[in-house]
Each structure stands twice: as C-alpha cells, then as structure tokens.
Write a structure and sequence with these properties.
Blueprint (H helix, E strand, L loop, with lengths): L19 E2 L10 E2 L14 E3 L2 E3 L5 E5 L10 E9 L4 E11 L6 E6 L6 E5 L9 E7 L4 E9 L7 E12 L14 E2 L4 E2 L6 E5 L7 E5 L5 E6 L1 E6 L4 E7 L7 E8 L2 E2 L3 E3 L2 H12 L36 E2 L8 E2 L13 E2 H20 L24 H15 L12 E2 L1 E4 L16 E3 L2 E2 H18 L4 H20 L22 H15 L2 H9 L19 H10 L7 H21 L17 H19 L2 H14 L53 H7 L22 H15 L3
Parallel strand pairs: 14-22
Antiparallel strand pairs: 1-10, 2-12, 3-6, 4-5, 5-12, 6-11, 7-10, 7-12, 8-9, 8-11, 13-15, 15-19, 16-17, 16-20, 18-19, 20-21, 20-22, 23-24, 25-27, 26-29, 27-28
Helix pairs in contact: 1-13, 2-3, 2-4, 2-13, 3-4, 4-5, 4-6, 5-6, 6-7, 6-8, 8-9, 9-10, 9-11, 10-11, 10-13
C-alpha cells in the first residue's frame, strides 16, 4: 500500500501516545505495579534526575528546573528498567504541581535505550489541568528496558516541579472508547446548494419508512416527506435510511431535519459558506510556509517566527548537506511548505499539491462554470497580495521555488534529478514551533519519482505563470526539460521504504504513471512531439485508471488524464481520453448512489485508507471534471454531494474541516497548531482538512482506542493520532479544488 509512512520514532523519546482518562479504581489480583518507590517515602532512589536540583520535599520529589533550556528533555526526572508487556493495558497515574502555576510537564513512557521510542505521552498544564492525572494505554512491545520520564525543560524562566504517587499499574482493563456521535440524523453541517442535491442519513433500528420534516430557524416546517430504508451500511455497521429533500430550494440559515424523534445539527442552504471555504482552504498554505515569518496582521493568532532560516536553535535550510554517503555538496533549500504536522518538505507530496492548486486555477480559467476572478490578486490576503498576480499563483510559487532548489546541480552525479526530500535527522516531538527545531537537516537521495514530480509541476507552471512572469516561466520550463532528460537517463532510482527516520518515506515503487504525467504536462505546455509520442506509447494511456482510489501522491496518471481532457490540446485520439474520464465518473457515480452515506468511495472490504477524506474528494474531482467536459448535471450533483461526507454527513457526525460545521475536527496532528497540548499555541486554522478514518490505525494512540473499528469509525480527533488525524498539504489541495468547484455552482 502506498501511504505516507510516518513511524514517529524519536531519539529524544518524544512522540505518539495511547492515553485515555479513566476513573481511579482499586488494584485487582492480577494488577502489577511497575514503579518502585513511586511515593518517595524512602527518598528518591531509584529515580534519576537530569539538569535539575532536588530540594527537601516532605515525602515528595521536588526539583528546581533552570530557565533558558531549549528543549523539554534538557531537564528531566525519571526511572529506568521498567518492564512492559506487549498488548497489556497499563494505568499511568501521578500527582504533580508546579510553581509558578501554568508550567507543563511532558510525561513519557518509552524506551531507555536507542532508538528511544515513545509508547505513551501526555503534557498536562500543571495546576490548570488539576493535580492528579490518570491515563490508560496499551504497550506495543515487550521490554525490560522501559522508562518513565517527566520532561521539564524548554522554558525561559526557572520553576519548581513536585511529583508524588507515581504508578504504572499493569493488568488493568482497557477503557472502551465510545465516540459521541450526537443526533442520529446526519447532515452536511455547513451548507447545501439551493439548486443542488440535498440528502441526509438517518441511523435507526427501523426497517420501514419513517416521516421526516425540514424546519427553518424559527422551527416552522418548510418541507416534509418519507425516509428510504437502506439496510445495514457495511462501512459503518449501522442500519440507516436516506432522507432526500432536494426539491426544497429556498435559501436559509439554521435549518434542521427531524426524523425518528431526532433533530439534526443545523445547516444552511446557500452558497456563501463555499465562497468562504474556497479561500480558507487555500489560506491554509500561508501558515504552512517555511523560511518566512508568518505575519499576525495577515493571520491573527497565527503569527510566528520564520522556521529553518539558520537562526539558532535551527540548523537551517540555507546550507543543507546530504545524508552521509549520498552527496558531497550542500543546497539552499529554504522556503516551501511544511508538508504536514512535521517540519519535513517532500518533493513528491509537494508535487501533487502544486498540481492540484494550479489545476484549481486552470479549471477556473477553462471550465464552463469557472470563476477565475474569485482566485485573483488580493483574495488570499498574503504578503504578495497587490502585485497583480493571482494570489493562488503567488502562494503556489512559494512551493515551486523550493521544488526548483531541490534539483541536483550541474556537474554533480545525477545532475538534473531532484532530491526526494529534506527533513530532520531524527523525529521531533509535540509541540515544537518551526523556529525552535534544533535537529540537523539532511537532503535525502535523488529519486526518479521526485524528478518527474518536478518535471510535471514545473512544466505546468510554465504555461500558467507566463502571462505574469515570463522569466520565471522560462526558468520553470528549462528545469522541467532538464528533469525529464535526467529521469529518462535514470528511470529506476527509487526511494527506500526504510528511509523513515525523521520524516515520511513517500516510497513509490512504480513510476510509470509519473513518466506519463510529466510527459503530459510538458506536451500541454510545449506541444512537443517527443512528449506526445511518450503519451501515446505509454502503457498508462489506454489503461483503466479509475479504481477505488483515483489519484494521490503515488498515483499520478489520473491528473494527467484529467488535464489531457480539459486543457486545450491537439492530442490524437483526445475524444477517447475524454470518454475514459466520463466512464470513470460513471463508476464513481454508481458507487455514490449505492452508498448510504452518499460518497464515491468504497474501498475493498471497506478498509479506509490513510487520508480517506482527500481520496473521497479526489474521486469527486473526477466527477466534477466529467461535468466540465459534458455539462451533465448528474456529474455536477455527484461532485457536490461528495462534499456532504467531509462536512458532517458521516457515521461519526463530524465535519472533518476545522471551523466548518457545529462539530468539527479541532485537534489535527501538528507540531505548531497544538493548542490541545499547549494553550498558548493556536488550533489548526479554519479550513484545515483532517485525514479522517484509516482502518490501519498505525499510531499507538489510535491503536489504544480503536482496535476492531469498522470503516468510518476508525478515527479519533486527537493530536496524537497521526494516522487518522493529521493535516497535509495534499489533503488541503483536494479540499481547495472541490470547494472552489462547488462555490462556482451558484
């Protein structure tokens, strides 16, 4: 499976936890205490300290913590040689105070020897969060070299930490996680279009039709009808009915649906929310920028210092070496977007994100309902606004400039290829502002996949930026041609699937689709016969590309197919290309109509993929493109209805877009949108898309809560769940594209 592999291991024992607050209870016969002298009644032995001064504490362990340390782990108290049993559930409990109030402690259960893996972590704010803390988690390993540590550093001012009654009790029963799914009527909590499809899902034990009512904000009934029983939905395990109210076209705010004694969360009928989401989804990228200070006047509450600009403690991106043995030069790779919740920057994921943002603009220029002016200069409120260039092009340029910097210089081995990624030597923990990252940065080996991502996006950029900056367009096209030639010379230099320390691997073992994509973008920009011939001779060209997942960072043939179908060109046999898109859209439309939650996504065995929300939206992009090609309203309606799922019409009754809907994701995995861990930090900005349900639940937190989950229930809104709740640039590019499309349908 091609997924973003982020096994978040940390040399400093910093990341991924499985924690759940549970009530205190008496120890049972099979419960075993793993902590020695957790009450400190006999002094401090066998506890160790690092860079703190212990003080008399009357039966507690108290320590004076120095100010001015850079990292949490620079001052700590802990105990080694803790035994953990794989699969066993543990209750971790301690009492702690801090003076002055408001300081926080990072409490970690992990490995005391390299690679210092972390199995459990929590960071309560002392005295604000209370004084006694209790959590449960399941150990993912067997080890006699476990460690319990309380990390205290990273603050500017000295403070006193006191600890007592530390317990790590094995053999406790795990707490069953029951998500609060709210009312059983599931709706798009944001908005339905007045002349668009309007459907909802009712969770009920009833097997016969039931009456429903649509009420306005005053409670008056404005429409009524009968539900359609659908049986058990295999993606959720729920018995459900469908509510269809498309015939009601009146605009309004605060409407609700009532059925089976339940009242839905409120929603609007109108287009204003999508006009706002179109911009908020694209505004996400400004606060993801590396190498520039984020201005608080442009994003109130999100201002921060520039990250990775060679100012301590950063080791910086201005002169980055390769991993040992990879190359003997350094590159200036400043700029670009942080890929996700970490500080890494990846060419392959940057490539698909750039393509989709540029495609958002290119579609707006060419499509029958496109409104390019809605993405014009001044719309995103970024530093470049006012330069007579569409803001979406300015924002995307920030990443494009970084991608160009990742190209291997002339005169070096593999010249013209692109380095796969650049990130920290080791994983860092949460929270960590970009400007506070102390890790060494490294370039990872060039790969064919990264090189073709550069070729495709630089070629696409060349045609779109030419009216605004001909010099940059020429530079981009030259880089694309050079990358294409380098990829042809080195067609099978693939990323290692084991290169996942400090950053995701993004390993892709088949680059046939990337060759097809790069040739397509070069052909659409230049019309060159070399590129046309490659397209026509590619095994991808006539293949059926529209499976359960249409495209993502590792599947790039569909972007090529969509551009060949919509960007003006003279490719021989183009009618067959457009026909294939319609046929793919018909397949997704059939999936949507057969799905009780109305989405064009039904993975085999209903095993949801990493980033399932953006995969649903990318399948919707195919539907939207079929509408742009044909004008067929069924494709338009299918694309529009697909948005319902991510905005609340789902089994968990949650909007996966921060700030949109009455109940939305709030705690996506991020090192700097980390209010859940540090109240001084902001939450993810409005318009951030969570990855959503992921049946593989790779992170320990999700594993401790979601074992045995069914499809849509494999999700938890917690910052520690990086496999179900991360945010990434390619997920938000899907949201940006689709929000713009829906906003255009007014």
């Amino acid at each position: 499976m091609n997924i973003r592999r982020t096994a978040l291991l940390s040399l400093t024992a910093l990341l991924t936890a499985g924690l759940t607050a549970v009530p205190a209870g008496p120890a049972g016969a099979d419960e075993v205490e793993q902590i020695r002298n957790g009450t400190f009644d006999s002094g401090a032995d066998p506890w160790w300290t690092n860079n703190v001064t212990t003080v008399p504490a009357d039966g507690r362990l108290c320590a004076d913590v120095p100010g001015g340390t850079a990292n949490r782990w620079d001052a700590a108290v802990g105990q080694n040689d803790v035994t953990l049993v794989k699969g066993e559930s543990y209750r971790f409990r301690f009492t702690a105070t801090g003076a002055p109030e408001g300081n926080s402690v990072r409490a970690v259960v992990g490995l005391q020897v390299p690679p210092y893996d972390t199995y459990h972590e929590v960071t309560p704010q002392l005295s604000v969060s209370g004084n006694t803390y209790t959590y449960t988690f399941a150990s993912p390993v067997d080890t006699a070299q476990g460690q319990v540590a309380f990390q205290l550093g990273g603050g500017e001012d000295p403070w006193r930490f006191c600890l007592d009654d530390v317990s790590l009790l094995g053999g406790v029963p795990p707490e069953r996680y029951e998500p609060d799914t709210g009312p059983r009527v599931r709706v798009n909590q944001v908005a339905y279009l007045p002349r668009g499809p309007k459907n909802a899902t009712l969770v009920t034990d009833a097997t016969v039709r039931l009456p429903w009512q649509l009420k306005d904000a005053s409670g008056a009934v404005v429409a009524r009808g009968w539900t359609v029983p659908r049986g058990v939905d295999p993606s959720s395990g729920q018995n459900v009915h469908t509510i269809r109210f498309s015939d009601h076209r009146g605009a309004g705010e605060g409407l609700t649906l009532v059925a089976d004694g339940e009242t839905s969360r409120p929603f609007d009928i109108g287009t204003a929310a999508y006009e706002k989401l179109r911009l908020d989804a694209a505004k996400f990228y400004y606060t993801q920028r590396s190498g520039i200070a984020i201005r608080d006047d442009l994003r109130p509450g999100y201002g921060r210092e520039a990250g990775h600009v060679d100012i301590a403690p950063n080791q910086g991106d201005g002169n980055v070496p390769c991993q040992p043995g990879v190359c003997d030069y350094t590159l200036d790779v400043t700029g670009g977007w942080y890929d996700a919740g970490d500080h890494g920057k990846y060419v392959v994921n940057g490539g698909i994100s750039v393509w989709q943002l540029l495609s958002t603009y290119e579609r707006a220029r060419h499509a029958r309902t496109g409104q390019a002016e809605k993405l014009d200069d001044g719309t995103l409120n970024i530093p470049e606004s006012g330069n007579n260039v569409p803001d979406i092009l300015d924002e995307t340029r920030w990443e494009l400039d970084f991608l160009l910097k990742m190209q291997v210089p002339d005169g070096e081995p593999l010249a013209g290829m692109a380095h796969h990624k650049i990130h920290d030597e080791r994983w860092t923990g949460l929270p960590l502002m970009p400007s506070d990252d102390p890790q060494k940065r490294e370039l990872h080996p060039p790969t064919t996949a990264a090189t073709l991502n550069l070729a495709a996006t630089a070629a696409q950029a060349a045609r779109l930026y030419k009216p605004y900056d001909p010099r940059f367009a020429a530079t981009a096209l030259a880089a694309a041609r050079k990358a294409w030639a380098a990829a042809l010379a080195h067609p099978d230099v693939l990323a290692s699937e084991s290169d996942g320390i400090g950053g995701g691997t993004y390993a892709d073992r088949d680059v046939t689709d990337e060759f097809y994509w790069a040739a397509t973008e070069l052909y659409l920009t230049t019309g060159g016969k070399e590129f046309q011939d490659h397209i026509l001779n590619s095994p991808v060209h006539g293949a059926d590309l529209f499976g359960p997942i249409s495209f993502d960072w590792a599947r790039t043939a569909v972007p090529a197919r969509l551009d060949l179908a919509t960007v003006p060109n003279r490719l021989p046999g183009r009618d067959k290309v457009r026909q294939s898109v319609r046929e793919g859209a018909d397949r997704y439309l059939a999936t949507l109509k057969g799905h009780a939650y109305g989405m064009p996504y039904a993975p085999e065995g209903h095993r949801y993929d990493w980033g399932s929300t953006h995969q649903i939206l990318n399948n919707a992009v195919v539907l939207a493109t079929a509408y742009d090609i044909t004008g067929g309203s069924k494709y338009r309606d299918g694309a529009v209805e697909s948005m319902d799922y991510v905005l609340g019409r789902n089994a968990l009754n949650i909007s996966y877009v921060t700030g949109y809907g009455e109940v939305s994701a709030q705690n996506q995995h991020s090192r700097w949108y980390a209010r859940q861990l540090d109240p001084e930090l902001p939450p993810p900005p409005a318009g951030s898309l969570s990855g959503g349900p992921n049946s593989s639940i790779q992170d320990p937190f999700a594993q401790s809560r979601l074992q045995g989950c069914t499809g849509q229930f494999c999700y938890i809104d917690d910052i520690q769940s990086w496999s179900t709740n991360e945010l990434t640039i390619n997920w938000n590019s899907a949201l940006t594209w689709m929000a713009s499309f829906v906003a255009d349908q007014d």
